[in-house]
Amino acid sequence: MQFKRVLVFYNEQKPQNKPLADSVATWLNARGKTACVTTSFDDLSATDLLICMGGDGAMLRCARETAPLDIPLLGINCGTLGFLAACEKTEFEETLTDLFAGKLTAQARTLLEVNIQFPGGKTQQLLALNDCVLRAEKPRALTINATFNTHALPPYFGDGVLISTPTGSTAYALAAGGPIVAPGVEGLLVTPICPHTLTQRPILLPPDGKLELVPVLKTPLDGADLTIDGQENVTLPPDTRVQITQSPLRAQLFFRPQRDFFTMLNRKFNWGCR
To answer: 116, 108, 119: which is closest to 63 by C-alpha?
Structure first.
């Protein structure tokens, strides 16, 4: 595979990752690539490949930026878990060599498209690779009305509702009691967060529908929070509607064959260990 212009990204709030980012860029330049280190996404237009130096949080941020531009993304784990990374930081030379030899697998990961309809007509659209979470602004139980296409769903009452992609099923949704969903499956995974009931369970909805959530706020002083991938937060006033669909965009993530989904479940989460 030919990647002429490569950006090596690291989070400027994690300066400990800069020396390794510099080493990766130096290694690439020595092999005929045009590589530079960056801490921003101001100019991705001519980028053939983005290398993310960081953990899963940095990968989520990079994926939301690269997906609209169809730029492939390769993660080198400098964080704790590194579930979305192609390799650990000690393996970057071997991994990049395999990448340019066409030995890595590119996976197209689905994203959520979140459309916020504020009262008065203002709208805001966001992308999520993992999930979006709707919950009360204050630490109290919240009622959330829900519809899927034209079908009214039973209201959710509890700490909130979490909508995730299959990629996000191994993140917050897993901790909230949701199922593990393999990346090749498409759909909207809806997981209630600490529901105040014994009967509400996670549900996987078809990928071609629209889920609408409306928080029920008792007074004008109440509010709800919407969080995207645990990173972007929007405060919702009364009468706000949140519409969630599967985005037509895809995040292109590279993985080594030895880091397939089920192997990483076992290695990172001890899945199946006795």
So the answer is: 108
Q: Which is nearest to 239 in space by CA: 87, 80, 116, 76?
A: 116
Based on the residue annotation, tell me whether 56 is a catalytic residue of this protein: yes
Q: Which pLDDT tens digit goes with each residue over 18-27? A: 999 999 999 9
Does residue 218 sit in helix, strand or coil?
coil
Task: Name the DSSP letter for residue 45.
Answer: T
239-268 b/e (C-beta count within 10 Å ≥ 16 → b) = ebbbbbbbbebebbbbbbeebebeebbeee
Helix/strand/coil for 56: helix
Where b means 16+ CB within 10 Å and e means fewer, 112-123 reads bbbebbeeeeee
Choose among 47, 49, 39: nearest CA to 1.
Answer: 49
What band does 1 get if pLDDT is binned at 50, 70 and 90?
Answer: low
Query: CB within 8 A of 118, min separation 6: which ones?
Result: 124, 236, 237, 240
DSSP state of 207: T
The β-bridge relationship of strands 203-205 and 105-117 is: unpaired
Interval 132-141: pLDDT, tens: 999 998 888 9
Question: What whole-number distance in Å separates Cα of residue 192 and Cα of residue 96?
Answer: 40
20: Cβ contacts below 8 Å, ≥ 6 apart: 10, 53, 76, 78, 89, 92
Residue with tokens 């996000």: 168
Place of tokens 């397939």: 260
Cβ atoms within 10 Å, residue 70: 10
Reduced to 3 states (helix: H, G, I; strand: E, B; else coil), residue 140 is coil
Please state, in angstroms and rounded to a whole number, the distance separating the CA atoms of residues 144 and 157. 6
Q: Which of 43, 48, 56, 225 is the catalytic position?
A: 56
